[in-house]
């Protein structure tokens, strides 16, 4: 069986993520995709994550509802400490090591793979699916070929390009603009009910980083 892992901060999860998960799953004939919302991501400042781990988890659970091939795993959230993908993947694979595992990531992040922890070991464990995102030029992965033993385990998949980002959604929330249809409806409801991303200073000043307020 082929299984996809889709990790992210998901702050919040949005339709760009859902499109990538669905299209990679169908393109590569994966049995299902496991969404793994991150605890505190090792590469992001803890303070740059806006919604709590539990709120982000609830949003991902709402987003996958109705698709029986999408599931959510709380391994990173429960760890309560930063986790690198190589570690997350090892833990998830323990449940069924005989399956073929695919790690879904935006191509922009794959181009930065040399900064990840033990990229070659990660590629031994999973096929890295580089999902294209708006404006992405695949030749930006070329530099990895000389540096990685397992470069041939990186597999680009062209997905429908939607210019949606979590940063953009948080910015719209701060500007009191509509985010309807940018996120799944269940996610919009949670954001509304729990007053997330409203810039009320609950998590940090203005709810956004300075560079996000543009
Ligand atoms: P932020 O704007 O806060 O950086 P994000 O929208 O990129 O967030 P993440 O949770 O960091 O969301 O992303 C999880 C994964 O989804 C990453 O691998 C990222 O590259 C990918 N991704 C995010 N948005 C898109 C999109 N619109 N199209 C394709 N891939 C995307």
Question: Could you explain the architecture of this structure?
Answer:
The chain has 214 residues and is α/β, with parallel strands linked by helices. It has a single domain (2-193), classed as Rossmann fold (3-Layer(aba) Sandwich). It is built from nine helices and six strands, in the order βαβαβααβααβαβαα. The protein has helices at 15-27, 53-64, 75-79, 85-94, 107-110, 119-125, 144-147, 166-174, 185-193; strands at residues 2-8, 32-37, 70-72, 100-106, 127-131, 154-157. The protein has a six-stranded parallel β-sheet with strand order 3-2-1-4-5-6, with helices on both faces. Residues 202-214 have low confidence and may be disordered. The structure holds adenosine-5'-triphosphate (ATP). Adenosine-5'-triphosphate is lined by residues 8-11, 16-17, 20, 105-106, 108-109, 131, 133, 162, 164-167.
For the termini, the CA-CA separation is 45 Å
Could you give the count of β-strands? 6
The CATH topology name reads Rossmann fold
Rg over CA atoms, rounded to whole Å, is: 17 Å
Basic shape: globular
Judging by the overall fold, what is the CATH architecture?
Answer: 3-Layer(aba) Sandwich
Binned, the helix content reads 25-40%
Number of domain units: 1
Report the β-strand fraction as a percent range.
Answer: 5-15%
Secondary structural class: alpha/beta
Features:
214 residues, alpha/beta, Rossmann fold, 6 strands
Topology:
Blueprint: E1 2-8, H1 15-27, E2 32-37, H2 53-64, E3 70-72, H3 75-79, H4 85-94, E4 100-106, H5 107-110, H6 119-125, E5 127-131, H7 144-147, E6 154-157, H8 166-174, H9 185-193
The structure holds adenosine-5'-triphosphate.
